[in-house]
Amino acid sequence: MEDLLRYFEKLTEIQTEQFAKLDKLYNDWNLKINVISRKDIDELYIRHIIHSLGIAKVQVLKPGSLILDIGTGGGFPGIPLAILFPESNFYLADSMGKKIKVVQEVVDALGLKNVKSEHIRAEKVKGEFDFIVSRAVTQMDDFVKWTRKKIAKKNNHELKNGILYLKGGDLTEELQNFPKAVVFDLSNYFEEDFFETKKVVHIPLKYKP
Predict the structure, then answer these.
(1) Range of weakest confidence among 33-47, 59-73, 79-93, 111-125
(2) Would you say 114 and 86 are in contact if contact means Cβ atoms under 8 Å apart?
(3) Nearest-angstrom CA–CA distance, 13 and 200
(4) What are the beta bridge partners of residue 129?
(5) Is this model's pTM higher than 0.85 or not?
(6) What percent of the chain has pLDDT over 70?
(7) Which candidate, 13, 73, 17, places its Cα nearest to that of 48?
(8) Which domains does the chain have, with CATH numbers?
C-alpha cells in the first residue's frame, strides 16, 4: 500500500480502504483458486494493482466513461481502475467462469457499484465503449479483431477512443500493422525495476456500426 499511496496521493478514504482490502481478498481467494501466480501474490500491489493503474497515468478516465476489460482474469486492470475512477463504468469479461466468480466476489466485497462482470468470450460482448483495456491476453492482431466493432463513436478524452493495452518487451514486430499505435513506457511513471520493460499501448479505433 505504501507504494500505491506514493504514486496516487489523492485517494479518498473510501478508495484507500478498498485498495487496502485487496491484499486479504486476493490472498484468501488464491488459496482456493490460483488466480494470481504464487510468485506474484506477494508482489500484488506492484505487479498487479499499480501495473493496472499505469493506464490511469496515460489517460484519466472521465465520469460516465464506458470501459471494457477483455480477459480480465482475476480483475486486472478493471478492478483497480474501477476503484480509482468510481464515476466511470466498467464491464469485466473473461472466458473462464472460475475467474469471473472471483472477480464478482471481490467486487461485492468492495461494494463497487460501477462494475459488471460476465463469463463471456470477447467476440460475444455487446455494446460500445470509450476504451477497451487488457493485460497481454493475446497478440494485437487478434485483439483488434475481437474489439474493433465495440468502439463508441463520440470521443470524450484526450486520447481517441480505442485500445489501452498493458504489455511488456519489444513490441516493434507486433505493432507493425498499427501505424497509429502510441507506446507509453511505464518506467516514466514508476521507478521499480518491474516496470523497466512494461508499457501501455494506445491504438485509436474508429467507430464501426
Answers:
(1) 33-47
(2) yes
(3) 28
(4) 151
(5) yes
(6) 100
(7) 73
(8) 2-204 (3.40.50.150)
Helix axes 13-32, 97-110, angle to 10 degrees: 150
- Here the cell at position 153 is 463513436
Could you tell me how far CA 172 lies from the centroid of its own chain? 22
**Which residues make Cβ contacts (< 8 Å) with residue 196, sequence separation at least 6?**
187
72 or 138: whose pLDDT is higher? 72
Strands 89-94 and 162-168: unpaired
Check: CB of residue 171 under 8 Å from CB of residue 203: no
Task: Tell me how far apart the 2 most distant CA atoms of the chain are, in Å.
Answer: 45
Length of the chain: 209
* Cell 500484488 belongs to residue: 44
Helix (H) or strand (E) holding 43: none
Collapsing DSSP states into helix, strand and coil, what is residue 123? Answer: helix
Instruction: Quote the CA–CA distance of 88 and 129 in Å, as a whole number.
Output: 11
**Phi, psi of 48, deg, nearest 5:** -125, -50
Report yes or no: 133 and 76 within 8 Å, Cβ to Cβ: no
Cell numbers at 168, concatenated:
511488456
In sign, the C-alpha dihedral spanning 93, 96, 100, 103 is: negative
| Residue that the C-alpha cell 511513471 belongs to | 189
Residue 88 C-alpha cell reads as: 466511470
Instruction: Output the nine-digit C-alpha cell for 98.
Output: 472460475
